[in-house]
Amino acid sequence: MSIDRSRLRDLLASERAEYARRNPRSRELYDAGEHLFGRVPMTWMNKAAGGFPLGLDRADGARVWDLDGHEYIDFCLGDTGAMAGHSPAPVVAAVAKRFGELGGATAMMPTQDAEWVAAELSSRFGVDRWSFSLTATDANRWVLRLVRAITGRPKILFHSYCYHGSVDESLIVCDDSFDGADRPGNVGAPVEVTRTSRVAEFNDLEGLEKQLAQGDVAAMMMEPALTNIGLILPEPGYLDGVRELTERYGVLLVNDETHTFSAGVGGATRAWGLKPDIVTIGKAIGGGIPIGAYGISSALAESLLARSDLDLIDMGGVGGTLAGNALSLAAARATLSEVLTADAFSRMTALASSFTRGVQDTIDRTGVPWSIAQLGARAEYRFASPAPRNGSESVDAYDADLEDFLHVFLANRGVLMTPFHNMALMCPVTTEADVARHTELFAEAVDLLVGPAS
Ligand code: PMP
């Protein structure tokens, strides 16, 4: 069953017209943003299927309200930053206490929460020396410096079309050459990316080995499942093969769990029994307050701390003034102890399974050539079947009009998906009724796309 493109264009145009009609205050906010670069506080917010972004009024749990008073079931959840739900009560209380009552968010002094959070992350992810940043991007950047310092090798290996934040080294993709190339659109790259990086496709052990065998790779940084180019799951044996090859070639393995944290309390690392040397994470663990973190093995930590040639204390390139601040850590302690618990993950995962079944039923009934994948609390559909196996295949399945149509159709009826994905994330207070509403609307949208049965 293929999609009739002119029907799709008509449907998208009429949904966009309805979006413009429904959202005059959001439009006004956008038009008033004359001193903002791109009319938004951050240029990514221009990724708006309706033509302009919805302005935020307030948010609570699994709900957001826009400036025109519409209520939404939020499956975007800040693209994982709000996986704990918006402003969960234990985090609000911890933040109010730390910032309001006790003060000192930027005092540059350690608090008792830091060791608690580090110990919790150690027991969840299996690596035992932790340090904090304000974003996952920075955790990744600092780790890349550390792995080069440890190994004395210059390059980092990434998967093609991975995303690890705005990290210079990671903006590399496979092309016809052995070395790969800059990711299209790479803004002002400091040096040609092939000087700092190597690249292999996800699920391709043979290609990976050829790259690692060059002997210049300090570390492989990966998500155990790709989550930023659709959701691409590892094939059986792939992750074992990655660990075996990285060990064989003396390459450190870094798991970026920022999104794959959806797999459970200890992310995919714990859910799948993985043994990385280093884990990085961010977003969700702060319950909405900025934080990032990286954990390294005690052996690596000790060897770094023993090095007199590395400036880990001042201007050596690792760290930040507000990193590890008291407020972030108070929020993370509340989030990990009271919100993103094992119980919450089992409920969230059950909801994502219902979501997946609902979408799959419509795919099966209508015969559209799409697929859906699930990783714990998140699920994502892709306009390809069978599901893409790697980043390049997934890029080929991208369909801007189709994605925009589904996003605007859902938004016009009170459901938000993640702007950069067809991704839905469950939080601890998402309900079965929320999922059922998506299932119903998704079926309605696909029925409109395929038209009446002939
Ligand atoms: N790692 C992964 C896997 C991500 O998906 C992202 C952001 N989407 C990041 C790191 C960077 O997170 P942030 O933008 O909060 O720094």
Automatic annotation (TrEMBL):
* An annotated Gene Ontology molecular function: transaminase activity
Q: Cofactors per UniProt?
A: pyridoxal 5'-phosphate
Which InterPro entries does the record associate with it? Aminotrans_3, PyrdxlP-dep_Trfase, PyrdxlP-dep_Trfase_major, PyrdxlP-dep_Trfase_small
Source organism, top-level taxon: Bacteria
Q: Does the keyword Manganese apply?
A: no
Instruction: Return the Gene3D superfamilies for the record.
Output: Aspartate Aminotransferase, domain 1, Type I PLP-dependent aspartate aminotransferase-like (Major domain)
* UniProt cross-references to SUPFAM superfamilies, sorted A to Z: PLP-dependent transferases
Specify whether Transport is a keyword of the entry.
no
Keywords attached to this entry: Pyridoxal phosphate
Matching entries from Pfam families are given as: Aminotran_3
Similarity comment text for this entry:
Belongs to the class-III pyridoxal-phosphate-dependent aminotransferase family.
What is this protein identified as? Glutamate-1-semialdehyde 2,1-aminomutase
Q: Which organism is it from?
A: Calidifontibacter indicus
